[in-house]
Design brief:
The chain is about 55% helix and about 0% strand. The chain is mainly alpha-helical. The N and C termini lie far apart (about 70 Å). The protein binds zinc ion. Zinc ion binds next to loops.
Length: about 300
C-alpha cells in the first residue's frame, strides 16, 4: 500500500482494516522502477545493463549483418519496448540504447570492425522508404505513451482514466487541456505527448489507435524507394537482401571504396582481372559476370531483363 498526502492516523487505520503492509517509493514493479519523481538516468540504468548483457550473450556466435538485424528487431527491441510503453525514457538512455544497437549491427561483439556503412537515421526507416525497418526509439516511445492519451480521449472505463479526469482534466476538453505548474513529472510528460499527437488525433479521430499507426505518422517521413520490393521480398535470402540494400545505398564495400578508405592500394576486379571494381562494374559491366549470367540464362532457359 502506497500513499501520498494521507494523514498518519488514517494510514494506520487503513493498514489495520485492509491487512496490507505499507511500502516505500521508489520500488520495482515487474522489473520497472516506480517513482513519483522525475525518471532519472540511474532509474533506467538496469535497462542498459540488460541490453548489454543480452549482446554479450549473443556475441559468441558469428553472425552476419542480416542475422544481427533480426536479433535487434526481435530481441533487443523487446526490452526497450516494454519500458517504452510505460513512460518517456530520458534522452541519455535512448541515446545509449541506440549506440548499443548501432554498435551491435555494424561491429557485432567485436570492438574493432568495419565502420557504419549507412547512417542510423536511414537504417531506422521502413523497408519501403529505404531502411531496414528498425525502430527510431524516441518516436516509438512517444507513439507508445500516446496510448494513454488515446485512453483519456476515449474516456475508457478504467480506474486510472477516471481518476485522471476527476483530479486533473476535470471539465476541460482533454485535447485542449494545459497542465498547471505544480503537477508531477509523469503527468507533464503525458501532456507533452498529447501536444505532439494532437494533430494526429484531430485528423484520424479517436475511434481506434495502434502504436504502429502513431509511429508511422511521427517517424516514417522518407520517400518510397523503387527498389524496396527487393528488400521486403521474403523469398530472397536475408544475407543477399542486406547486400542489395547496401548496393542500393551505394555502400557495398567494393574495391573502389576500400581504396578511398586507404585499406587497399590497387583496384583491379578479381573476376575479369583488368577493370576497376565498382558496384556498376561488378554487377553490370564485368565481362566475367556477364558471361556467367549468359551461361545461367542459357542453362535455365530464362531471360533476365537488362
Ligand atoms: Zn570485372
Amino acid at each position: 500500500m502506497y500513499s501520498n498526502g494521507v494523514e498518519e492516523s488514517t494510514m494506520v487505520m487503513l493498514e489495520r482494516l485492509s491487512g496490507m503492509r505499507r511500502g516505500k517509493v521508489p520500488f520495482k514493479y515487474l522489473g520497472v522502477n516506480i517513482t513519483p519523481k522525475r525518471l532519472g538516468v540511474d532509474d533506467c540504468q538496469c535497462l542498459i545493463e540488460k541490453i548489454s548483457a543480452r549482446i554479450r550473450g549473443l556475441g559468441a556466435r558469428k553472425l552476419s549483418y542480416a542475422g544481427r538485424v533480426v536479433l535487434i528487431k526481435s530481441d533487443l527491441s523487446t526490452l526497450h519496448n516494454y519500458w517504452a510503453r510505460i513512460f518517456i525514457l530520458p534522452k541519455t538512455i535512448i541515446s545509449k540504447i541506440k549506440a548499443l544497437c548501432r554498435k551491435f549491427l555494424w561491429y557485432g561483439n567485436d570492438c574493432k570492425g568495419s565502420p557504419a556503412l549507412v547512417s542510423w537515421e536511414q537504417v531506422c526507416q521502413s523497408t519501403k522508404k529505404g531502411g531496414l525497418g528498425l525502430k527510431h526509439l524516441h518516436w516509438w516511445n512517444v507513439a507508445a505513451v500516446a496510448k494513454y492519451v488515446w485512453w483519456l480521449a476515449l474516456k475508457t472505463d478504467h480506474l486510472w482514466v477516471r481518476w485522471i479526469h476527476a483530479i486533473y482534466i476535470k471539465n476541460v476538453n482533454w485535447l485542449d487541456y494545459k497542465p498547471g505548474a505544480g503537477v508531477c513529472w509523469a503527468w507533464k510528460k503525458i501532456c507533452w505527448v498529447k501536444e505532439i499527437m494532437k494533430p494526429f488525433f484531430l485528423h484520424q479521430g479517436i475511434a481506434s489507435y495502434e502504436i504502429k499507426e502513431g509511429y508511422k505518422w511521427l517517424a516514417d517521413d522518407g520517400t518510397v524507394k523503387n527498389w524496396h520490393p527487393w528488400i521486403s521480398n521474403s523469398l530472397i535470402i536475408p544475407r543477399h537482401k542486406f547486400n542489395i540494400w547496401l548496393i542500393a545505398h551505394r555502400r557495398l564495400l567494393t574495391m573502389d571504396r576500400l581504396v578511398k578508405m586507404e585499406i587497399i592500394q590497387a583496384n583491379v576486379c578479381y573476376l575479369c582481372g583488368h577493370d576497376a571494381e565498382t558496384i556498376d562494374h561488378l554487377f553490370f559491366q564485368c565481362s566475367f559476370s556477364s558471361r556467367c549470367l549468359a551461361l545461367l540464362q542459357d542453362w535455365l532457359k530464362i531471360t533476365v531483363p537488362q
